[in-house]
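Most newcomers find our protein records easier to grasp once they have seen one. A learned vocabulary of local backbone shapes supplies the integers on the structure line. Here is such a record, shown just as it appears in the course material:
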Amino acid sequence: MKTLAKLAAVNATTRKVWALTTPFFTSEHKWKARAMLAAIVVLNLAAVYMLVLINDWNRLFYDALEKHDQPVFWAQLLRFTYLAFGYIIIAVYKFYITQLLEMRWRAWMTSHYLQRWLGDQAFYRMELARFSSAGATPDNPDQRIQEDLNLFTSYSISLSMGLLNAVVTLASFVGILWGLSGGYSFSLGGRTYEIAGFMVWAAIAYCIVGSLITHYIGRPQIRLNFQQQRFEADFRHHMVRVREYSEAIALDKGEEVEREHLDRRFLSVLANYLRLIKAQKNLIWFTTFFGQAAIVFPFLVSAPRFFSGAIQLGELMQISSAFGQVQDSLAWFVDNYSSLAAWRATTDRLTSFEESFATQSQARRPEVAAGAPSLVAQDLTLSLPNGDVLLSGLSLQVSPGDSVLVKGPSGSGKSTLFRAFAGIWPFARGKVEIPADTMCIPQNPYFPDGSLRDALAYPEPASHYTDDALRQALEQALLPQLALRLDDQDAWSQKLSGGERQRLALARVFLKQPAWVLADEATSALDEETEHTLYRRLVALVRRRGGAMVSIAHRPALEAFHQRRWELQRGPDVRAAAYQLREGAA
């Protein structure tokens, strides 16, 4: 049963690796990729052929030394120059084409995964799923795309080409070693036995034993490499968060707390790395002994034949060289175990990342129809990521000309309802119809680092708008001081105050002139006078455009800008839904 389980695990791993590997070689770049791969294979074969010629050169060169044959000595030195020069050319171009293939493969996989991660808002749903009851989701998708893809392509090519080189070298030199090693005779029970090609069998036995011991010693590295990548990513991710929230942390005097958090994450990095070093140290003890013993092993076995005069010095050196090539080929697993462990860990991380895409695509989500004449929700049920139901059985409609204010206590699901109307909340059932010309204003708007014009026009290119349109939008949002800074480069999310960020988000609305606006606490950081001015302009905009507005807000004064009110109140039966929605006039 254990054997069947291991075979099933090997088959599953093989299918996963195949699923990760084949898309690039069947993509739109398949012919270039296959041609480069074929060139690398040919260069590997050529390199092995050069090693065969150099092995034969060993015999002729050392025989000339033993016989003091000066003409042959100089002729073989000249021949070695040609062989070495040819081998250098092959090695250089094998490296160059291999690196090009790795780069193009990584570029394609990065583009492929970025498209899937950013497409269909998978990046958002993966973050939400981290807190759901459906199970764990992959940690640090940024690290998996940036680092794991690089490691996967690099290790996949180097290990596969190394294995190919080992197989071809073994096939090329095993015949040479068989012919050179002669037979080994021994007596047992009064009878004499002879083992043909003894050196070949000795190399095979030597490497089988070495591979088994290597796997036994080195297998903890697979798990440790997996954990090391996760701990490193967690440490880097928290430093990015400190940078993003630097002002809030500074105002709260939270430096010591953040230092403790970073120290704790870095201690996890160091502790796991120390375990990994110890595991590698144990493996290096054995592999170093294994490699050093392999140097003298062929001399020990061949010494009796050499001292008896059965073979010359050249043949002894050729046997040593051929045994070294055969032993190196058979010891490929031993020599590359640490790389194989890192590659396996990387493959597992990418496989789980791949599975998360499949899980997200299969997850049940509300039916969202874009381009509707009104904003409509039919039999809509909203849940939290942990499965708790917030609102159940909602049937709502917002028609052109309406203005709706959504109110309720914190945590009642106002923003969740906002996300469902926007079509991004995955933990929902029912149907949502959204007008095409709809724009959302989140409570914490995002602005990319760069020029102010790019931050204002986001996500569209700033070239779609004239400078006059950009400046007019800023003035409408009461940001005249920024109208002359369109080309300034800055981290706007950090340099602007909370009120300025909200006004810049409103400037986007005035710039793009949508008919429908969904605003989630869009003016919560503004003073009342500024808030009223901007809301009058928002209401005028949507009425002029023939649309409607839905606002989430706490301030009672904003009711004057809305005709209807949806108020969320705690429900009597929390098992059915935590809150209920009551509709009335504003």
Notes: The chain has two domains: 15-362, 367-585. The first helix runs from residue 2 to 25. The chain has 18 helices and 14 strands. Residues 15-362 form a domain with the ABC transporter transmembrane region fold fold (CATH 1.20.1560.10).
